[in-house]
């Protein structure tokens, strides 16, 4: 069980962190042991446990409960955002460090208890250990390391620990910004240790409902077959998808727009002409695209396809529109600070790149805040088994990322020591 950290005499922050590894891993194991699956998104218990552990480390923690009505509108049960603020010296920038504590449900196929916090072969296993509870520990210990020797530092470091990334981030980072609970000059969001994410895709989720009229299967002409019409719409969408390959992103790590129909529901019974079919689709939006334009064009294309089927009605509902995370002027300062720190810690250059998934980091960038993703983890999500069974974190990546973040913060706050 992690205990309160005693203040040390001024020392090399890397040496201090090396002596803290056992306590840091114990803290992260506690993060894993408290379930915070989203859905259903009942994350209050995890936030309260995190607050208690952070206070034991000596932090003053603000707990901001999101109103129930707002939480329900986001499709969740409860959410409490945690904020820690630490001022150093006078003036200087405000730097927010954001990680999310909500996780996807564990699913099947685990070789260990997904909530056990099992350590074996140099890895810590558990749901959310890499995405992104690891960076609760990364950022907390980086801030602790700054506290040990703050000479020459000027500015404020904030921990933003939120609980709705799997639902889109609307009541996490965006809510903190909209409520004016924070207005940082820079934001560092959960990521992996061997690269710096400077951009990522946006995402559009649409629900398409095709409505016809039921009829007896022995006399199908008495009905209007919603499934046949839906099949025609699907064929048209797949033709459209093939055309997306011709559009290429200029961002390293991101290829082309994509479209996937991930869910189909409908019909009444085997011997009945289906009167209703619904489709859920996922359209990934590359950084160079305009999200609103993508949505308008896709809806227009679906409606045009539906008109080919007489008597069929087609309803389209937006489920999610996550705009791409794009670079903001000033982002290069974060990139340089992290690269310089990584050269000292990891003895290599970590490159900026884009990723095809989407995160809640986009809310900081959309507010005009220079933002990058960097934290504990391997080179790819697949190596960590992110969103899969046996999610794991290599502990040496946790230690390295914590040292890199610590040194980068020192540089950004005015001390390159």
Give an account of the 3D structure:
With 417 residues, this protein is α/β, with parallel strands linked by helices. It has 11 helices and 15 strands. It has helices at 13-19, 21-33, 44-56, 68-73, 134-148, 173-178, 226-244, 291-306, 331-346, 362-366, 395-412, and strands at 61-65, 80-88, 94-100, 118-120, 123-125, 155-162, 186-189, 195-200, 202-211, 258-266, 276-285, 313-322, 351-355, 371-373, 392-394. The protein has a 6-stranded mixed beta sheet with strand order 1-2-6-3-7-14. Strands 10-11-9-12 form a 4-stranded antiparallel beta sheet, covered by helices on one side. A hairpin with a 2-residue loop joins strand 4 (118-120) and strand 5 (123-125). The longest helix has 19 residues, at 226-244.
Q: What oligomeric assembly is this protein in?
A: single chain
Task: Tell me the structural class.
Answer: alpha/beta
Q: How big a fraction of the residues is strand? A: 15-25%
| Count of individual helical segments | 11
Number of strands: 15
Helix percent band: 25-40%
Which stretches of 5+ consecutive residues score pLDDT under 50? none
The main sheet comes to: 6 strands, mixed
Rounded to an integer, what's the Rg over CA atoms?
A: 24 Å
Sheet with most strands: strand arrangement: 1-2-6-3-7-14
List SSEs in N-to-C order: HHHEHEEEEHEHEEEHEEHEHEHEEH
Mean pLDDT: 95
Spatial gap, N to C terminus: 32 Å
Overall morphology: elongated
What is the topological layout?
Elements: H1 13-19, H2 21-33, H3 44-56, E1 61-65, H4 68-73, E2 80-88, E3 94-100, E4 118-120, E5 123-125, H5 134-148, E6 155-162, H6 173-178, E7 186-189, E8 195-200, E9 202-211, H7 226-244, E10 258-266, E11 276-285, H8 291-306, E12 313-322, H9 331-346, E13 351-355, H10 362-366, E14 371-373, E15 392-394, H11 395-412
Parallel strand pairs: 3-6, 3-7, 7-14, 8-13
Antiparallel strand pairs: 1-2, 2-6, 4-5, 5-15, 9-11, 9-12, 10-11
Helix pairs in contact: 1-5, 1-11, 2-5, 5-11, 7-8, 9-11
């Amino acid at each position: 069980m992690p205990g309160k950290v005693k203040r040390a005499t001024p020392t090399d922050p890397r040496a201090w962190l090396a002596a803290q590894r056992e306590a840091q891993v114990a803290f992260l194991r506690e993060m894993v042991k408290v379930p915070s699956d989203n859905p259903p998104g009942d994350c209050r218990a995890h936030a309260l446990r995190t607050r208690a552990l952070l206070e034991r480390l000596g932090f003053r923690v603000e707990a901001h409960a999101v109103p129930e009505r707002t939480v329900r509108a986001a499709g969740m049960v409860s959410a409490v955002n945690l904020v820690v603020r630490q001022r150093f010296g006078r003036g200087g920038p405000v730097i927010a460090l954001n990680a999310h504590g909500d996780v996807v449900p564990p699913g099947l196929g685990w070789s260990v208890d997904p909530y056990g916090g099992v350590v074996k072969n140099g890895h810590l296993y558990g749901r959310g250990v890499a995405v992104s509870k690891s960076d609760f520990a990364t950022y907390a210990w980086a801030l602790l390391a700054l506290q040990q020797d703050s000479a020459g530092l000027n500015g404020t470091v904030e921990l933003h620990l939120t609980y709705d990334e799997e639902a889109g981030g609307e009541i996490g980072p965006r809510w903190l910004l909209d409520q004016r609970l924070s207005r940082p000059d820079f934001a560092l969001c959960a990521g992996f240790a061997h690269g710096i994410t400077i951009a990522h895709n946006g995402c559009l989720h649409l629900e398409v409902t095709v409505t016809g009229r039921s009829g007896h299967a022995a006399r199908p002409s008495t009905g209007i077959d919603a499934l046949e019409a839906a099949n025609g719409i699907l064929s048209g969408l797949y033709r459209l998808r093939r055309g997306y390959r011709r559009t290429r992103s200029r961002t390293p790590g991101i290829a082309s727009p994509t479209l996937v129909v991930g869910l189909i529901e409908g019909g009444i019974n085997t011997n009945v002409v289906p009167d209703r079919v619904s489709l859920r689709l996922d359209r990934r939006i590359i950084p160079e695209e305009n999200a609103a334009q993508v949505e308008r064009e896709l809806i227009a294309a679906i409606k045009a396809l539906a008109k080919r089927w007489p008597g069929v009605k087609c309803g389209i509902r937006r489920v999610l529109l996550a705009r791409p995370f794009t670079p903001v002027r000033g982002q290069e300062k974060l990139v340089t600070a992290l690269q310089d720190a990584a050269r000292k810690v990891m003895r290599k250059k970590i490159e900026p790149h884009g990723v095809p998934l989407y995160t809640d980091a986009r809310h900081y960038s959309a507010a005009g805040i220079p933002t990058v993703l960097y934290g504990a983890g391997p080179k790819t999500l697949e190596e960590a088994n992110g969103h899969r069974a046996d999610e794991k974190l290599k502990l040496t990546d946790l230690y390295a990322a914590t040292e890199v973040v610590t040194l980068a913060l020192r540089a950004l706050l005015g001390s390159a020591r």
